[in-house]
Please model this.
Amino acid sequence: MAPGRDNDSNMIDAQRYPRLARIDLPADLRKFPEQELPAIAEELRAYLIESVAASGGHFGAGLGVIELTVALHYMYNTPSDRLVWDVGHQSYPHKILSGRRDRIETVKQKDGLAPFPRREESEFDTFGVGHSSTSISAALGMAIALHRAGSEPGESRRHVVAVIGDGAMTAGMAYEALNHAGGMEPSPDVLVILNDNRMSISENVGGLTKMLGRMMSSRTMNAMREGGKKLLGGRSRPAGRFVRRWEEHWKGMFVPSTLFEEMGFHYSGPIDGHDLPALIGALKTIKTLKGPQLLHVITTKGKGFELAEGDQIGYHAVGPFDPAKGMVSKPGPKKPAYTDIFSDWLCEMAATDSRLMGITPAMREGSGLVRFSKEYPDRYFDVAIAEQHAVTLAAGMACEGAKPVVAIYSTFLQRGYDQLIHDVALQNLDVLFAIDRGGVVGPDGATHSGSFDLSYLRCIPNMVVMAPADESECRKMLTTGFRHRGPAAVRYPRGSGTGVAVDELLDTLPIGQAELRRRGSRVALLAFGALVPVAEQLGSELDLTVVNMRFVKPLDRALLLDLARNHIGFVTLEDNAVMGGAGSAVAELFALEAIALPILQLGLPDTWLEHASREQVLAEAGLDLAGARRAVLKRWPQLTATINAPTINTPKLAAG
Ligand SMILES: Cc1ncc(C[n+]2csc(CCOP(=O)(O)OP(=O)(O)O)c2C)c(N)n1
Model:
């Protein structure tokens, strides 16, 4: 029985959540009197805590927007009015209020609710998200299209609201949209709510953050405002108007109003984003205004759950936990994750080479730079959510002889693709890309899938692209890429590998040389990266030749041509899209060399990989042992007979 649920129906427990139980849709929320909204918010907060404690998932950001979510659905006629959440990790309260209350505990699980808003899931999810800083562009697009379409007779003006965090507001894309909206004629009716909680996943960084911080710590400003109000009793009198002008002048020195106003937005705020009456009051006023609006709200990430308020980074996203005790780490030895291998390597390499610079676009924790940031603060660069900038920054550093390492998730490097091509590879600069979460990511789903990197990297001239079979090899590849002259990428998966002992030396591998893991007969299995262990198991079952390819680019041409002489066919195995991936590289080589042997390319299919555990997704894609076996035997049924048969000697092969 899930907590917060009624024993018989498994629906929400109406005794404990009397109001929330009556809210199936936002229209039900809008039937409540305004005075009850704070009580509804409290129920929503308690329900969210119980649900996420049971399921795990994104947590702190949702707690921080409880009041804002209630206020928005109360004040706007959703889904007819459009509500666009940026990133969408804060959308669980929105999901609960918009028809998904009783399924919220299935979030991120196979066949459960999506981790982020998703158009297919609900008409209240107006825009699919996961990657940040898209909300203003999307909302502006909606506002323009709605305006063009016009209203039906009798229909009131439809509103469009984007909610964007101060973290997401650091990305260039947000400013591209502000710039467009602010300069448009006629000016578009769109509301941007800046949810300022001072945090990205870790502490937010950059000039904007400093500006917001100056405002928050400005006691002068508050004292002035409060004092002015008390002294003059409101703003309607002439003296009040004078004070307001005076306040506006000073405000510009402390608050971001001028920035947004100069860009063409009407700025309101800052207001306390946990104060429902204040939120409702502000939205009532803003609803009457025309043109682009920016409402600045101040919130606390993790609000209302003490542990999450106290550890905002740790509670950004959580596994299941006990609400009374919070998160407790499981006892016993753990296999190090690839991220940990990278983290140690980075610090050790930095100790040997003072030119090394570590760059992260706002993913210090996820990408394993916490230790480096402490040990080498002057060589550590968190550039905020700015992947494009991160890549070109690295290019600039490399121009001047530094050795930058860009630590980035596969899915987020997509944002910096032109910079990778145009700024790094075209100039053949020494930049190492340490690409985490390559391949199947699991619960974070399609938006975060690292399925495309091998395809999008291998077509770029000058790139060296590596995929390690295990943790020790990952370390060697990082060293290889770092010492290589020119751009290089090491792409490794989420989680831990086989648990092999990691070679402590900072050794390199010969570029473009694969490793022959097993000599078998008839068919050769060419495995890339995380799927090498699957290949080894299958190889010994079916007596196949098994190669740990190591390099997606350059391929080990000599070995492949040699194998082509004494095998009847090839299987390529990778956790990347089949299209354009590592298997395609082999097929292209064979086509070029006029080798007419069948190649069975196993990899990720041409569909979106939905959220589920990593193992479930791999199995669904046919990339677990059973799936690979099925596919190979279907192509070469004669191999069945060789299961467990003794190894047949093949002529001597080049070993890597
Ligand atoms: C393009 C992109 N880069 C990185 C991320 C990873 N990420 C998810 S949430 C987040 C922080 C967002 O901060 P903010 O917008 O302030 O929201 P908060 O969590 O503080 O409410 C980051 C960096 C992402 N989702 N998209």
In short: The chain has 25 helices and 19 strands.
